Amino acid sequence: MNKVKCSVLFLGKENDGYVEKALATCRANFTDVTPYLAKWNDPFPEDIGWWEGDYIISYLSKWVIPEYLLNKARIAAINFHPAPPEYPGVGCINFALYEGAREYGVTCHHMVTNVDAGQIIAVERFPVYESDNIATLLVRAYDYQLVLFYRVIDLILKGGPLPASKEKWGRRPFTRKELDELGRITFDMSRAEIAKRIRAANFSVWKPFIELQGFTFELKT
After folding, report:
1. What does CATH list as the number for 4-157?
2. Is residue 23 a contact partner of residue 12, using CB atoms and an 8 Å limit?
3. In the list 1, 92, 121, 139, which could disulfide-bond 87, CB 3.0-4.6 Å?
4. What pLDDT is attached to residue 169?
């Protein structure tokens, strides 16, 4: 099978199975693929400015791509966001669970200088179950995001233009400060409010917390 003559800059998370599948798909189908993979809080690579090509693909990357690099993509710079347009920014799953969303999803969109603000290409949606927590919903979101990735790559391989979805971003992006605040529990909160925050903020090393007289106490659930 002949590869499509295309230069791709692939940005993603290091040591992640979903990212590895997406990158392997790019390498199998495009002639020139340059990957940059990183862990949380890794600095943006200083040597990336040399790149110039057809597509930038951001897949579970933690970096905000600077404008000068976006402008070097001749055809498109696209991102796969593990949330629907109603939840831009960080902590998307957390806020969806906190708000009791009945539906969740994943989004592919063009990248612009502002985070999660570019023209939406496509969205995949799926139901949220009452039994869902962060871990279960995250896995399902990553599964659907990989399917959406294959759909968009297929469009690129067929040579057609990427579609412009009628979907719009639902709000300004959630911030890290708002996500941190979601985990805060105070003594004046109702039992229902505390239960919502525990469901929305209890995952891996991140735990809900109580602050008392200058001390922070992590909740064990």
Report:
1. 3.40.50.170
2. yes
3. 92
4. 97
